[in-house]
Amino acid sequence: MLATPGELPDTDGWAFEFKWDGVRAITYVQNGLVEVVSRNDRAITNTYPELRATGRLPDVVLDGEIVALDQGRPSFERLQLRMHVARPAQDAIRKVPVAYYVFDLLHLKGDSLVHLPYAERRKALESLGIDFPEVRVPPSFTDTDGELVLASAKEHQLEGVIAKRVHAQYEPGKRSRAWVKVPLVQTQEVVIGGWLPGEGRRAGTIGSLLLGVPDADGLRYVGKVGTGFTDAMLRDLQHRLTPAGRSPFTETPGERNVRWVTPRLVARSSSASGPETAACGIPRGAD
Fold it and tell me: What is the mean pLDDT of residues 76-82?
């Protein structure tokens, strides 16, 4: 279930949660065995072995966000150091530990809960008593003004707030108006359509990505970005991007030496001034 961007609701019947800057994941636990999948159903259990702590729970299906903390706050930039490591060594896990912030319970002991209202699912989730270092249940505010929750998110430099109707069912695979996301940091999902070779330290690798946004006419070019990458990300990108013979954009950018690619990999771009100066993150399994 996905949230719809919008304004903070000012009526009764809403719960408010903090918006975490991480990677969405569904976790299946059965007889102590754990399987974690990304938003696009890619298996990521081995990428985040910390989530195997959920195997201590009864049979459940959980919805939540994988985060990496930096001075107590979730940091997407820090999380990127783990996203592109399929089987991290213990040293990598110690340097960049992750936690799973569980915010919904979809199945419990073989029974589906998706038809229940949010308030009842939340009560069932809290009854599990989840309190592991690697797996936590973040707060939900039902008797607090949403503006206060948003102000708190801003004070602690969090990504924003998610408002959820307390009487709404869980709608798998849908972007629903029963969940409203109110971001403090503006992000845009963009599609990679090409790349430019790097220079200097990046010679022989990717220097910058050419990004587009789908619209009614096709893939509209919106700019290029060359920051926000680690060396591991660049190596992973060169492996994952599929070369194409021509530009996928409706209007070909005026760049030279572009390596065109099949437009299937989605990136997250965040900036106050547009993609030309944006930082870009490539979540594993985002295509």
Answer: 84
In whole angstroms, what is the distance from residue 151 CA to residue 224 CA? 33
pTM for the full model? Answer: 0.73
Mean residue pLDDT of the chain comes to 88
By the 10 Å C-beta count (0-12 exposed, 13-18 middle, 19+ buried), 131 is classed as: exposed
Among 22-26, 29-33, 183-187, 188-192, the minimum mean pLDDT is found in 183-187
Dihedral sign, Cα of residue 93, residue 96, residue 97, residue 102: negative
Domain boundaries, the chain: 2-183, 187-281
* Residue 19 annotated to the active site: yes
Sign, CA dihedral 145-101-165-269, equals positive
- Residue 242, amino acid: T
Token representation of residue 236: 């992973």
- Superfamily the domain 2-183 falls into: DNA ligase/mRNA capping enzyme (3.30.470.30)
Q: How far apart are CA 18 and CA 267, in angstroms?
A: 22
